[in-house]
Design goal:
Elements lengths: L10 E3 L13 E2 L9 E6 L3 E7 L5 E5 L2 E2 L10 H9 L1 H8 L3 E7 L15 E8 L4 E2 L2 H8 L6 E2 L2 E5 L4 H5 L12 H12 L3 H6 L9 E8 L2 E9 L1 H10 L21
Parallel strand pairs: 1-2, 1-13, 8-10
Antiparallel strand pairs: 3-11, 3-12, 4-5, 4-7, 5-6, 7-8, 8-9, 12-13
Keywords: Ligase
GO molecular function, one term: ligase activity
Protein name: DNA ligase
Length: 261
């Protein structure tokens, strides 16, 4: 049976909203970042997914801790599967059996409603199975040069973090939301015949990003990783009184002119 490499759980930084299921994770002080090189990304609200190849060169797609093998619970991944198989040859040429490409699959709206995505799959990490380490951001850029059809998450900042104030100041409007979000969501729901009131209740309509994802990097690899979840986002999750997997799928929107294939 093919071994599955689960994406590592990520510690919260102090002040972060603690999500359900993370109660057992340590909360780290911002001072633990002092003097280190940090990459800060916009944290995305989607399904953690990955692409790799088995020892006998078969394409493997996974979400969290399981391989995608079919069934009604995988409906939101239909396009992910079609896209990955379309580019399986190119992906194998770069990933081979050594590397795993992790990313956020953003087809189904969770709590954030994205209006302008460059793709439904946004890559955020490359794992080297031989070294058992994640490549640094710069090495990932070089690695992905041969995969122009792959988009990556937004990097907000690289350098040292000196204070909590500096960190929190990076939380601003999402780079993947445009215009009047509430108005666009209402119109979109009417177009898709979705319950507008219910969708608004289940959506963070502030237009702000979910939070931040931080990587401490050195010597070509990720050394540590942390996350900071905006409390307003977390409150919307609580107030919705439901889980996105139990709702009808409402697709997020791609930018005008974007084609997956």
């Amino acid at each position: 049976m093919q071994k599955i490499y689960k994406y590592p759980r990520t510690y919260h930084l102090e002040g972060s909203g603690i999500q359900h299921g993370d109660e057992d994770l340590s909360v780290m002080p911002v001072r633990s970042l002092a003097g280190q090189y940090v990459v800060v990304e916009e944290k995305m609200d989607g399904a953690n997914s990955a692409i790799s190849f088995s020892d006998d060169n078969q394409l493997l797609l996974q979400s969290r801790g399981h391989y995608l093998s079919g069934g009604p619970r995988e409906k939101q991944f239909d396009l992910f599967k079609a896209w990955a198989y379309r580019y399986a040859g190119e992906l194998w040429q770069t990933l081979g059996t050594r590397y795993i490409m992790y990313g956020e699959w953003l087809y189904a709206k969770h709590t954030m409603f994205y209006t302008d995505l460059p793709h439904y799959f946004l890559e955020f990490d490359i794992f080297d199975k031989e070294q058992e380490r994640f490549l640094s951001t710069e090495r990932r850029k070089e690695f992905l040069f041969l995969l122009p059809f792959v988009s990556s998450v937004k990097v907000l900042y690289t350098g040292q973090i000196d204070s909590m104030e500096q960190l929190v100041s990076m939380i601003g409007p999402s780079h993947f939301i445009r215009g009047d979000l509430k108005e666009r969501l209402q119109a979109y729901c009417q177009e898709k015949d979705f319950n507008v009131a219910q969708a608004l209740k289940e959506t963070d309509t502030s237009g702000l990003m979910e939070g931040l994802y931080l990587k401490v990097e050195a010597d070509g690899y990720v050394q540590e990783r942390y996350k900071y979840v905006r409390r307003g986002f977390l409150q919307t999750v609580f107030d919705s009184e439901s889980h996105w997997q139990d709702r009808p799928i409402l697709p997020n929107c791609l930018s005008a002119g974007v084609s997956l294939f």
